[in-house]
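so im writing up the methods section and need the alpha-1,2-Mannosidase record in one place, dumping it here so i stop losing it
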Amino acid sequence: MSNSLPYSVKDVHYDNAKFRQRSVSQVISQALLTSNGKRDYLKCSTGKFLVLLMIGGLAYIILAHKSDVHPVSDGVAKNDGSKEGDNIMTHGSGNFRRFWRKPPRLPPRLSPDEISSRNRSIQESTKRAEPEWIARQQKVKEAFIHAWSGYKSYAMGFDELMPLSHRGVDGLGGLGATIIDALDTAMIMGADEVVYEAGSWIEKHLPEKIEGKGQVNLFETTIRVLGGLLSAYHLSGGNQGGIPGDKGPKPSIYLENARNLADRLLTAFTTSPSDIPYSDVVLREKSAHPAPDGLSSTAEVATLQLEFNYLSYLTGDAKYSIEAMKVLQHIKTLPKVEGLVPIYISPQSGDFSGDNIRLGSRGDSYYEYLIKVWLQQRGTNCSYLYDMYVEAIKGVRHLLVRKSVPNGLLFVGELPYGREGGFSPKMDHLVCFLPGALALGATKGFTKERAMKENLLTFEDMENLKLAEDLAKTCVEIYSVTSTGLAPEIAYFNIEGNSEGGPDGGNKSSRYLNDIIIKPADRHNLLRPETVESLFVLYRITGDSKYREWGWQIFEAFEKYTKVDSGGYTSLDDVTMLPPRRRDKMETFFLGETLKYLYLLFGNSTTIPLDEYVFNTEAHPIPIISRSQ
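--- predicted struct ---
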């Protein structure tokens, strides 16, 4: 099979010609001229006589039997197990007339220009509905302002808001993570007052916090704080990018803080005995150490590269990119299970630890960054990342993708004891990043229409895009199956020969009530973004409005059950009961990711286009370097 789907106007003309109506004389002459034996039988007088006799006989039959013609439905004979020629003279003249029936009138294939014209009419129809989506997008902006108002009132300067008890907590190192996570969302939404408040706090307070704070997690600090600062630098007009405005400090403030922070985070790489960094850094001491068990998460060490690569690009100092990319280059050399990797790795030895394979926690963003770092660095010497991604997705399809019973939802399970152990039908909400990553990997960030028009899609790409759409539906059904319409942290699936059994989601009208099991310990909702992230990416790539509708349903459920009147939104303890118990925590990613993806989902596709940006795993948009040069 070829690597692409060739298509040209020449093909269109050929295919359409096959279905043009032909006269009786054209049928006969074409049959005679294309016969393999024509040269032989026309050379002798007997052959010529037989040809004339046949033509005369056929003409007599046609003229003598003008009645009793029975129509043939749609011009296609039914297959009764015998050949057409066997029945020519057995059912009277009507059946004989089938010999002359017209070729099947299949719809001709459209040329690329005709496809574009048709799609323009569809787009015009879509535009008529745009005022509704603009209004919905405004609702998301209002939700963001409400979330920020609660944080500003009760937790300004802390990492996170506890909206029910009206106080702030530092659970991420004390660098004001919500402020930095939310800043580029505010810039994209045009929430100028928030941009000014957040930017002013960063300019005034962040430098001393970076200098004076203690232990932080390398991964969390990189994706939330470093990624947020770099995105804010670009979107505020730094390096002539983004959405420049006069709100907040100069772009250089964000870049200076990003560099100061990254210089301290680098110690996790440079003090490790292997190419795998330590998990924790003490900022004020510029020192690093491993986690208590000595291991790092595979996802965490492999989800630093977008940020450090972009910092090297901005500063001209290659040290950040070199240290971060060593991790992926090292993992390339390690043994894998059909491209899949265990969720733990040792900074001491540089080897994987254990056999647990999953795309949920501690495994997820390893696979996400394989495709995203490749997209960011296209044109440089990192084609090995795409090869690793392709191999890994083949492994996912072969080893982890299953169907639920009784209704056949596709889902991604786990191998907690490796390939030789049993399969677990457990799927974290975190796995719902995968539909978006698959779609990006298939079209390379272009729309499906453009990718097909430019012959960019292989058969495997089309299969992966279909898998992305099927998995996105499953992720949405995990929401719909609950009483609140919000997803639990973890779901299990009934599969053939292994029925998990257990409590359902509570929505008795859901078709998939018996496919999905939600265990008591897994019923909480943390306001996570992964599903709406994939809906955003799939809408941008396919243009299918169902992804917007699904996103709106999720947003309405957030509004109904997690909004706190005094400001902010809260996590839930149990999404299967009404009213749901509240947990008193607003994660930073609700402002940094969930609301940002919903806002972009309902908005214009020219805002942060996917062929010009990659989103880091905390939804901070970073320009594709190969197109920024």
